[in-house]
Amino acid sequence: MRLGNISYELPDDIATCVRKRWAFWTSIARQEYMVNEVRVESSLSRRFEQAAAAASKVRAKKKMQTSARWFLATKKKRPYLNSFYIPAKFKQAFLKPKEVEGYSVLKDGNVISKCKELERFSSLRRMALGLKVYQHTTLLKQRECFSVELEFVAYEQTEMADSAYAYPFSSNVTFVGDGSVSPIGGQVNTLYKEVRINMQWGKVDKLYEICTKLRRDGAAVNKSCGLHIHLDSRHLTVRGEATRRARLVAALPWLMELVPESRRNNSFCLLNHLPGNGGRHQRYSAINPTSFRKHKTTEIRLGSGTMDPDKVLNWATLLRYISDSGKRFRTFESFLESKAPQHIKIWAVLRRNKFFPSPGQTNETSENI
What we know:
The protein is elongated. Residues 33-38, 78-84, 103-114, 136-141 and 364-369 have low confidence and may be disordered. The protein is an alpha+beta fold. The longest helix has 18 residues, at 238-255. It has helices at 12-15, 18-30, 41-56, 66-73, 86-93, 116-128, 205-216, 238-255, 261-264, 291-295, 309-324, 332-336, 342-355, and strands spanning 2-3, 6-7, 34-35, 38-39, 110-114, 139-143, 145-151, 153-155, 173-176, 187-188, 194-200, 219-220, 226-232, 287-288, 297-304.
């Protein structure tokens, strides 16, 4: 520090302690070192030494140990505890995630999800320590889920075209209306035009069951229908979900080559990577940025309408790999060089050959939409 023509270096114990620095400057302020508005350097130097000596006598504030803070915060609610019992009691009262039964790692195919019990432990712990209590601070890893939204209409003269059709509502299967779907020749509107199916990865029997029944009863798709995938993002923070979404947006230039023209030029599926399309708060973006705030999911609206469960799973698996791989696949070639499942690579190549065919390439056999 420098005052007038005098340079003075604060001792380390004063420079690193707020209390001692405050005492030092208070002592300087109390001293009269101005004589006829001229600084007396020798006197000023001596007063610096006196102020430093006074500040060094101030007791520095020590950071209390975690167990001691808990001990004081719970003084009225605890029995007599000696100093040896405090740390053990603290650890027992506030478990860490790894100490909770059922905790597993990502390598086991599991991801993090909110756990009310651990949130309660975390809130109590932070409250006891005098820290700010967050709504979600501690998370438990469990099975990851995903949801699919299948849009459809019905063929004329079929069971589903009847207004009295009994839709197969069940656990985790919901039918809702959709204003973006419109019938074409030989098709009619139905009471519900979209089915939402919530599943765990590896447990997709419900998807096959619903698709089989709807196709048997007359469900159909056309160019106005889409396939929306919701990837479970409950384990992610706002920044983490934004990073996952950025990976998907980086892959959009070649992902759009895997879908028909009706999805590439669609007002309900605006491409994020193109200027002026898919604004930050645009619900109808190909990678929906508003889904996380409302549903704690990452929604991809780019898929084309289908009632083929194999196609749905291949598309969902592809999107999951891109979003969770930790890399950004900006080109289709970089994806093919990755460690993605081989059957997904083959399926992606067939999809690309179908919509961007070259001589000698094989097309995929599926709905012509």
